[in-house]
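Standup notes
- DV: blocked on the single-chain target, sequence here:
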Amino acid sequence: MSYLSFNNPNRRKQVSSKRAQSPNKGSMRKAFSDWLIKNHGDTYASELKKQRSQTKSNLTKLRSTQKSSDTPVVGIVGGGFAGLYSGLILQSLGIEFEVFESSNRVGGRIDTWYSTKYNSKDPNNACLYGEVGGMRIPQFSPDMLPVQHLGLSLNAVLKRNKMVDKMVEWRKFYYDSDVQRLRYNNMDAPIIKENSTLNSLNFGKDEGGDLPMVWVTPTSQPGGEPYLPINMVLEKVNGPFLDAFRDEPFDKAFKKLMKFDNYSMWTYLTNKFKLKHLGEYYDPKMGKKNDHLPYSVASYLETLNVGTGMYSVSFVEMVLALYDWEGSMNPYDHSDPNIYMITMNKGMQHFPDACRSVLNLDQGVLPEDGYRAQVEIGMIEDAQGQKGYSPTNLTKDAQPPSTVPPANPPKPVAGKPSKEKQRVFMNHRVVQVEHDPLLYDTNGGIRLKVKVAKGTAEETLTKEYPYVISTLPNGAYLSGELKTNFFDHLSFAKARAIRECNYMPSFKAFITFKDQFWTKLGERQGKGLGVGTSDRANRQIVYPSYGYEAQGGVLQIYCWAQDAERMGALSDEERVNECLKGIAYLYPDADVYGSFAGYKPEETTKTWFWDNHAGGGAFALFGPGQFTNLYETLLTPEFNGHLNIAGECCSVHHGWIVGALDSAYNSVNNILSQMGETEKIKIMEKMWGRLTAPDVAIK
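- DV (later): unblocked, structure below
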């Protein structure tokens, strides 16, 4: 789930003009993770080496203490993507495991709401759904390609087992358009994006706002196009760091950025950045050159680019997110300014459901499946030493532009169908994770206490494993059980990291309308509108990227931070009422209330705010200093390597599916290293790629 909207009208132009000057240098987030471990991971590195030198067990010895080779070696807590991906890797390596999911579905914070009237075969009802959790990925980002790799690998297994109805397919996600609407500060009427570049949006003092007019008065450089100075600020704030990433060695660039890890975005803007740093955009009317940016400027930037209170998070987080944005652009043609994003056809829920289907087969992804998928999407070069992009699971609208070269993957292997084997257990709620050093001939292990829903009653199970991967959001480690903690005897550092790791609240609502009044915008009709924005509590309207042939449709409301907290404090129906007012504010020329299909929970409406499975926050978003002080701690295995904690918070990809995948990969890598299974690590890298496994940086 992308948490940054970048609604600033000059945002895309700034990125495209910069990126045209230099080639894509590869996976920024992996380089950042490696750099953090190299420069701030002494404790992590020493602890891993200590654990691996002290271990008495390997895979052979473990199995000699168990009843059979089918006895699970790894227990996995949570059926979100971190848990599912951990299982898929282990399955592909022939290592047995079990996954315990507390709810009646898999996917965690990937969750699609379907109206009770949804019908995929009826054009008028096939569009009645929306994404409660993650809803899009940048199509070409080197960091995000493992998500597409997973989909292709799953499809190979599903096709082999004649489960084609469960295969996953990507469609285009329309992120923005020139005709998406904006309205702020009691403007007389909304405007469209193509007309917003020189519009002050009523933030100027002469229009009732608080910005001195010098910031929102059109000006220009000699021979250049006109601009508003306020819209040039972020270019100068982020520019030195982005330029360093493109033009300098990664180590040097990250060192420059990490000097400011203790700054929030707001603190950097108002206490570090000075007016003189605006360079050619500076005007003496703004103040003295050594003055910092005023509160009103920081407020404007936060309001237009993210959400109320989001600039309290780490400055480093914000800069890296900005760099990530290039991942939504075409790396094969730097002159292409377009944004390319994709989403799962018929709902993201199909993705984790496909994972579950494969996990419950005896045999999963084969080495040939994983290798072929990497070539298909350009994760690795083909046999001729070239990279291309031509995955076989894209809808027509998601096909890459003509400037993207096709891939040349090897032919798929036929393989053999597999028998069923249950490894994913639904409605199994883990309430306690306990280390016991006496298990497995004193090699040590983990004991799980699991409550299983049996109608209105619960049955309690005790399960034991040499290794456990726990993948819950940090807030979910408060079990709510009487006299029983989820964890006991965690290290001081781990307990603190779990407690302090910053999570961002999120609110979403899905509201059904009897007619799609938002499509009546001329040439853009039926092609996807992107995101409409305002300063009302609902903040964003995310237009659907599908279903324009239907009469009715669903609008999605999305906001974060304080905006989300305030919406979440209302009753369900009150939330819908606020959303309707926000939509009407952007559409005074439409009969919004007349088009509303009525308040009928789960049929016409759905609102989400911090459900019990999210554990108190939608996704991790580090605060100041947390990359330096918490990242390595979150990654470090506990109890002599028997417990690994995974999830997108245990990565540098906060708020994205790939963060969960990377953390799972790293946890499996830790377990294989602990067992001395170097050959299986090589097989894993060949099948799944060389994802961000931070301990690679310490070898």
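- Follow-up: The chain is about 30% helix and 15% strand.
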